[in-house]
Every structure is written in C-alpha cells, then in structure tokens.
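Summary for the steering committee. The consortium agreed at its last meeting that each partner would contribute one worked example illustrating the joint modelling workflow. Our contribution is presented below. We chose a case with several input lines so that the handling of multiple components could be demonstrated. No manual editing was applied between input and output; the record is shown as generated.
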Amino acid sequence: MSSALRMAAFAAAGVIVFLLPGWVGGVYGAFAVIAIMATAAYGLDIVVSDLGEVSLAHTVFFAAGAYATGLLATRLGAGSWVTLGAALAAGTIIALALGLVTLKLREFVFSLVTYAATVVAAAVAHNWDLLGGSDGVSGIPTLDLSIGSLQLAATNDAGLWPYAFILLLITLYAVRQFRRSRLGAMAMMVHLNPRLATMSGIDVRKVRLGVFVLSSTFSAAAGWLYAYQRAYIGPDLFETYFLVLMLTAVVLVGRRRLLAPLIGTALIVGQERFLSFGGEVNAIILGGALVVALAILPGGFDALLRRLVARPAVQAPAPETRPVPQP
Amino acid sequence: MNLVQQLINGMVLGHAYALIAIGWTVLLGVARLVNFGHGQIYMLAAFVTWWAVAGLGLPYPAAILVAMLAGVLIGLIMQAAMLRLTFAQDLVSIMIVTLGFGHMMRGIAGLVFGGHPQVLETPLSWIDFEIAGAWVTAQDLAIILVAILFFALLHFVLERGALGRTARMVAEDPKLAQLAGIDVRRVYFAVFAFEGAAVALAASLVAPRTPILTSIGFEEVIVTFVVVVLGGIGSVAGSYVAGLGLGIFTALFGGFVSPAYATTAAFGVLIVVLVLRPSGLALGAGRGAR
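What follows is the complete predicted structure of the assembly.
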C-alpha cells in the first residue's frame, strides 16, 4: 500500500518536473542541462557514496562521451544511436583501463592518480589535432534518434528536454536498482569493511572495478547528450568547473540519498542560470558551497535538516502546554 | 649550442619547480596535509605582486613581501576552515575542500584583477648575461639563488632544529604530540601559513617569466605533484633534486621532442610511480614510514 502510494507520488512529482520548464516560461535549456549534469554526477555518486572512494576522473568519462559523439557526428556523419554506443564504449574503455591501473590504490593515492589522469587527458585534448585541439569541435548536428518512420528528433532545447528527462529517469532507476543489487551490496561491504568482505569470499578488486566501470557509463551517457545540447565540444570540458560541479552536487545534499545529486545539481545550475551574479561570483559561490558542504556541514543539507528537525522535537512539549490555560 | 641553452633553461626551470613545490613538500611531509588550491595561491600571489608593483608603485622586493603576506593570509583562512578535517586526518575531504578553495580563488582573482593578462616587468629581467653562447637574465639567476638559499635554510631548520622535530611529532601522532604539551593547532596553522608564503615567494619570482592570467596555476600544481612524489614525500633534499631533474627533463623534452607534451610526459612518469609504488608514499595515519 505505502509502496504503491510512494510510486504514485513519485510519478506525480515526475510529471510536474517534466512540465515545469514549460510553465515557468520555457526554460528548457536550463532544465536539460540540470538533467544532463545530474546524470553525470550520479556516475560519481555511486563511486563516492557506495564504493567510498573519491574519483576525480569522472570529468574524463563525461568528456570522453562528448568527444566520441562530437567527432563521430561531425567527421563521419554518424547518427545519434551510433554516437550513444560510441560514447558508452569510450567511457567504458577508459574506465576499464584506469580502473585496472588503480586497482590496488586506495583513498588519497587513488584520488591523486585519478586527478593525474584528468590532467593528462586535458593536455591530450588540448594538443591532439585529431580531437580538434584547443579549438574543439563545433557544428555538431542536432539529436536524431528516429527509428524507421518513428520521428524522434530534437532541433532545440525544448525538443531536447524530454530526452534529457528520460535519460535522468533511466539513471535514477538504474542507481536505485544498483543499490538493491548484489553488486551494490558488495560495494557497500567493500566500502565499510573490506576485510570482512574478503573473508566472505568477495573479490574486492572485481567489485571495485565493476562499480568503477558501471559508474563511467552514466557520466559518458551524460556527455553524449551534452554534446548535442551544446553543439560544441572542446577541452573546456576538462576544466575544474565540471569537476567541482559534480563533486559539489554529490556532497551538497547528502550521501547515499537517491535524489541528493539531482537536487544538488539543480541548486547549482539553477543558481547559475536564474540567479547569476556573473562568472566570477558564481565560481566563488560554487567553490564556497563545496568548502561549506565538507568542512562546515559534514553530511550536507540532509544532515543539517535532520539536526534542525530533531531540535524542535525535543522542545515540542513547551508550546503544547501553553495554549491550554489561555482559553 | 642549442643543448647548452636547453640545459641552462632546464636549470632555471628546475629551481623554479623546486621553489614552487617546497610549500607542498613541507605541508605533506611535516603535517600530512594536502592543498589542491596550491596552483591558485600561486596565481593570486602573482597578481598581488603585479598589483603591488604596477598599482601601488612599490619596489619589486617590497612587492614580494606583500605577496608573501597575502599567501600567509590565504593559508591561515584555509586552515581555519579545515581545522576539523585536519584533526580527523581526512585527507580525501581536505583534498576536495582545497579544490573548492582553488575554484573560489579563481573567481576572486577574476573579480579583483579582471580577465586581462598582465605582464610584470621586474628590474632584474632587463639584465642579460651570456654564458657559453646561451642567454640568461638576472631574474633567472635570482630564482636559482633564492631557491638554493631557501632549501638550505629549510633543510637546516627542519632536519636539525627543534622546530622540525616538533612538526614531525605532530605529523607522526597528533594526539600524542598534544599530550606532550605541543599546541597542535598552532603547528597546523604555522605549516599552512608557510605553504602560502612559500608558494607566494615562488610566484613573485617565477611568474614574471610568463604573462599572468587567472587560468595559470594548473601547470604549477601538476609540477608540484611530480616533484613532491618523485622527491619522496616530505624530503626537502629529495624535492630539490626532483625539481631540478624535472626542470632539465622538461627543457630537453620540450626542446627536442614536443613542448606541448612536456608536462604530460612528466605526469605519465608520476602515474607510473604512484601505481607501482603506492605504499612508498607512506600516507595515512599511523603508517609513518618516515
């Protein structure tokens, strides 16, 4: 009963979110970017929240998806289904290689090496002419997922929003299923008690690699749609902005909450799009949010909210007694 | 002749790298802390030096002091925000928080100093010398001289003096150090202030060689990782040797193979070292191999 109610509430919320950009004045572009960046952040989220490692290479998977899409669509005229496959393949291959290399690394050294990988990838993207060099690749055609006579094309942001929304829904469902799956349970065990996991016969390395590669597909798929949304890709995809955006989205609201990265992304991109104070101030706000979320509010808004909610509950009897003698 | 020029370039570059990295060496080796905003402190300090000379009209040596003061201030603010994480020795969170600080600093620099590239002309950069057919400026010689003096002083203070012993004790076991009557908080603040001042000193000397932009600092932080890790975490002498080696490698690789991929090649070496010898880093509480 309650699970059916929750499903209904979730569906109603989904419909409202889907219609929202049209109601508030056709801000499809901002909503599409929120959905895309949230999808990218979910990739990072399952590594941070479930595996307990901080990967700084998820911008590489995101950029790999975008580059595969941009290059194939402009140079070979590939359709959107082909570029989707290529984007996922590019992200998976890079994640597999990086995952194998970092298999034995933990915590700080793992983060350092993944950061190093991002830096190397950025340098390659800047300098390799095949990838468009520092100019990047422009003139990416619009999204066209038509199958036979079924027309599935998006010529502008309003047309793209439904696809971004569907991508986000698939991601949410996949993350939820992952957390209920054997792999998800094993990842948590590896995270919380690696020795117990080993004793229980879990192959720690296999789990780490599996989660890492799985996580890359979300970020790569987000990169795929982002290339169509922006119609341009370039080495700016490796800039710290995307890295800081994803990290902040993951830690801002709370760990291991299904909707947390989505809400985090919506807060950040929403501020940049609707309450912008210019690029510099936005950077200060975003960086500041990351600092505050980790250094001052451990556990994010979720933990803060719980503390705030918990406090009045203790004092609750006081206001109740007061109205009684008054009348 | 070209080889001589590249070698001399490498020497200058190497001392510059060592100087840029020394704050991190001390931070990581002495207090087991990291700072991914290192490159952005470099960038801000370069702007402050330029502003002190071009805006305030201060002489160059005074401008260096102003930049170092700014570096100390930034270091203290960062440490104040991260004190809880520092005591928890939560390196990964510290890493992300400092990334956030770096992002903030870029925004602040853009806001305060604008998006235009600035060039800092120091009096030393006008003086040229010819050595065996290769050219160096007095600025280059100043970098080498200051780096050598700084490293010698640091080596003496950290590895001989009581100050270094205190700091190492804090790194080894913060709780025990506290029981022994050491004010651990003060040590952490001092180490972060030193990090800020050291990278600011490096910026005020090295940054005049290139245009100063809000986007610089990325390269510097990469170089710093390589120097700190290859030099052996926390080793002052090792950092000096690694910096010098990396500088000569970069100059030769850049001069004879490909200038665009010079830092990338160095970073490739770093990844290989980290992957092959992760335990050699001896990070994390209680492992203290040093």
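The beta strands of chain B are 128-131, 134-137. The interface with chain A takes residues 34, 36, 81-82, 84-85, 91-93, 95-97, 99-108, 110-111, 218, 222, 225, 260-261, 263-264, 267-268, 270-271, 274-275, 278, 281, 283-284 of chain B (CB under 8 Å).
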